[in-house]
Amino acid sequence: MSGEPGARRPDQLRPVTIQPGFMPYAEGSVLVACGDTKVICTASIEERVPPFLEGKGQGWLTAEYNMLPRSTHTRKRRDRDKLDGRTVEIQRLIGRALRPAVDLKKLGERTLMVDCDVLQADGGTRTASITGAMVAVAQALAKLRRDGKLEVSPFGTFVAAISVGVVGGTPTLDLCYKQDVDADVDANVAMTEDGKFIEVQGTAEHGPFDRAQFDTLLDLAAKGIKELIGKQRAALGPEILGLLGK
Ligand code: UDP
């Protein structure tokens, strides 16, 4: 079940699994698999905020992303001296996409540090990171409630992300690497549980696209995201959802 093109309909997600508690030292953790893309996501709680927020009575969420050297077909050098541009772009996207998941005022002066480490890359690593990290963040917030550190749930909304594109003229959900390479249009979409957009990144790879095509892609993304949020809820289970008031 690799989710290879041809093995699924263009409006179908690749097989998704979200395995909670994958890194038990972290306050929240999962291994998320979307087809052959696999990412470890952790959420750690630090009892402080960055200097620009000190004394403001609110918390923060920030994210880091990395691909392991052999997550790809040819070895990717580790970032040692300087992060590459793609890494910076992706980790900022992950942070922005996840911030609506947390009511930062209710979190208090704490930072949720999200780490996404790609074990295996087959397209859609940034969207799998967001979808998986959402579950890790929810676990970490539930732990704060369970430990009696917060009387009110700081949970905002569920969020998930997915890629969509036009491949061989067909609007397609959740592109694997091969489809990503072939795509004429390629977009990444992050949305909330009630279907509001957080981020839409769409690019014409081989010539401009029209509004109707883009609307079709956004509808596909909304369908996929709804399914992913169902998986997130199932992975968390009733005890954690209860602690979060969800
Ligand atoms: N990729 C790769 N090496 C890299 C960057 C990307 O092999 O240094 C592959 C990998 O499979 C990745 C895909 O290209 O998932 C698409 O990369 P993109 O930058 O579009 O990000 P993603 O789709 O993973 O969010």
Summarize the helices and strands and which ones pair or pack:
Blueprint: E1 16-20, E2 28-34, E3 37-46, E4 60-67, H1 85-98, H2 104-107, E5 111-120, H3 125-146, E6 159-167, E7 170-173, H4 177-182, E8 185-192, E9 197-204, H5 211-243
Parallel strand pairs: 4-5
Antiparallel strand pairs: 1-2, 2-3, 3-5, 6-7, 6-8, 8-9
Helix pairs in contact: 1-3, 3-5
Keywords:
single chain; 246 residues; alpha+beta; Ribosomal Protein S5, domain 2; five-stranded mixed sheet; four-stranded antiparallel sheet; 5 helices; 9 strands; binds uridine-5'-diphosphate
What does this structure look like?
By secondary structure, the chain is α+β, with helices and mostly antiparallel strands. It has a single domain, classed as Ribosomal Protein S5, domain 2 (2-Layer Sandwich), CATH 3.30.230.70. 32% of the residues lie in helices and 28% in strands. The protein has 5 helices and 9 strands; from the N terminus they run E-E-E-E-H-H-E-H-E-E-H-E-E-H. It has helices at 85-98, 104-107, 125-146, 177-182, 211-243; strands at residues 16-20, 28-34, 37-46, 60-67, 111-120, 159-167, 170-173, 185-192, 197-204. The chain has a 5-stranded mixed sheet. Helix 1 (85-98) packs across helix 3 and helix 3 (125-146) runs parallel beside helix 5 (211-243). The longest helix has 33 residues, at 211-243. The model has no long low-confidence stretch (mean pLDDT 96). Bound molecules: uridine-5'-diphosphate. The site of uridine-5'-diphosphate has 12 residues, from helix 3 and helix 4.
